[in-house]
Amino acid sequence: KLQFLYLIALPPPFPLLFSTMRAPLGPLLLCSAAAAFELNHTVRSSTSHAYVAWNLDSSADRQFFTRDLTDPQLRYLTKEFGNTTLRFGGTGNDVLTYAFGDTQCSGVGCLNATQWDALAALGAGAGMEFVFGLNIMKRLGGNGSDSEWDPTNARELMQYSKAKGYKFFGFELGNEKNLVFSGASTARSFAKLQQLLEEEYPDAATRPKMMGPDEHSFHANGGDKSLLQFVTDFADAAREMKLPLHAITHHEYIEVDKTSSFSPATLDMTRTIAESVRGAVSAHLPGAEVWAGEIGPHNAGQPPCDHSSMRWASYANAVWYADALGTKAHAGYQKFCRQDFAGADYGLVDCSTNAPLPDYYTGLLYKRLMGKAVLGFAGNDNRHSSVRAYAHCSRDAAGVTVLLINLHPSATDVPLSGVGLATDAARVDYILTPGADGVNGTRINLNGAELVYTPLHLPAMPGAPASGTTVHVPAHGMAFVQFPGADVAACL
């Protein structure tokens, strides 16, 4: 199997040395002084096979009720992305009523059979696992923490879906309701969901899983103690009730913008949050997976669905995306549910045209190249550096791959060594750089050529054959570099 290593490089060259030394926690961050890079041959964590996942939001301001989910271009791009996880969730899901069984509704806030059939077909056509965020605001006895969740409408949705043959990977319950319900109250609602699942899916082997609590939202290094407390309260209650919770989920927006896209201090927040959440889950609900259940560069608000607002549809945003993917995987997360695939101005595809944006291509390359096994490494651990590194076993190939992401506005040469890498080692480069419209534009180049999409035809994305262990990384570039001949025992 191929192994991947991602780096983000500063202008001076830095030697990267691979060995079997024990790895410390965290991605490699190189600074201006020479720093050793030593790859550990053991696996430190593992992502799911569908780690690079994404969301569709039922909110009206994410255009759910006006978007044509049968659009051939939308279906083509989801299928080309390959089998992953589609999470149907967001603010709109907690005001959503399902028009099935005895329940009738219409208009915005109503999920009817036509819409649900189209959404289910979108996911099934791409071979996706489907995670459905249920409305926790369907209550008995008011909406306070002492009220009970009413599963009636959820049962109607499940029964309709079973009749149609629709499969669920899992269910969430509630979206960002940590200011409405306590962690313990939320866990009691999950207990009712578990009872419902046991009744509707009596075979435990095929029963959909539960994940939550999807609290809102980690934004920065500090000021998130109440959110972490909500997570631990929920986890403690779930453990006490012996709920078979598959994953703890949280939401995160570190507020990246055009002034901070290449700021190490801003991007470092992703790691700080990851370490806090991972530690809390390990301590309070060991065995549960950790998901970035809804994660984006910014809480997008309510921008129009046109090109008057393209704040996070840029190449610079793709750099945040690649770094965040690497950071969460290295911290032990199993899934990264990107907000969102289509909707507002922070999606993987253009809200108004459904054309792929730089983030789409970045996520696609990451998904194609990065395997499940995350490798540790030792070396310089300067959080504030413009160079980051993450190591994985490969997906369906042999050797080692290095991803270098250069936050600096100057190009750099990065020498690599170790793990059986001869100085003339054969390699394959996938180097992403800003397009002609710059880092804040919507164009992206691969190996010097712009990736141009035409309807129903993604551009070819081949690597460029090269040799040697010194890699030239352009300014603000991201380089996936495969070394097929490198040998790491953990990935064989």
Question: Mind describing the biggest β-sheet?
Answer: 11 strands, mixed
Structural class computed from helices and strand pairing? alpha/beta
In the predicted model, the low-confidence regions spanning at least 5 consecutive residues are 1-36
The overall strand count is 26
Mean pLDDT: 86
Fraction in helix:
10-25%
Number of helices: 8
Features:
disordered N terminus; alpha/beta; globular; 24% helix; eight-stranded parallel beta barrel; 492 residues
Overview of the structural elements:
The chain has 492 residues and is α/β, with parallel strands linked by helices. Helices cover 24% and strands 28% of the residues. It is built from eight helices and 26 strands. Strands 1, 3, 4, 17, 18, 19, 21, 22, 23, 24 and 26 form an eleven-stranded mixed β-sheet that branches. Strands 5-6-9-12-13-14-15-16 form an eight-stranded parallel β-barrel, surrounded by six helices. Strands 2-20-25 form a three-stranded mixed β-sheet, with no helix packed on it. β5, α1 and β6 form a beta-alpha-beta unit. The N and C termini lie close together (6 Å).
Provide a brief overview of the structure:
It is built from 8 helices and 26 strands.
Helix-strand layout with pairing:
Elements (H helix, E strand, L loop, with lengths): L1 E6 L8 E3 L9 E3 L6 E10 L5 E5 L15 H10 L3 E4 L8 E2 L11 E2 L1 H13 L3 E6 L4 E2 L7 E2 L2 H13 L5 E4 L9 H18 L8 E10 L6 H16 L4 E9 L10 H21 L4 E8 L18 H16 L4 E4 L19 H12 E10 L7 E8 L4 E7 L6 E7 L7 E9 L9 E3 L2 E2 L13 E4 L2 E4 L4 E6 L9
Parallel strand pairs: 1-19, 2-20, 5-6, 5-16, 6-9, 7-8, 9-12, 12-13, 13-14, 14-15, 15-16
Antiparallel strand pairs: 1-18, 3-18, 4-17, 10-11, 17-18, 19-26, 20-25, 21-22, 21-24, 21-26, 22-23
Helix pairs in contact: 4-5, 5-6, 6-7, 7-8
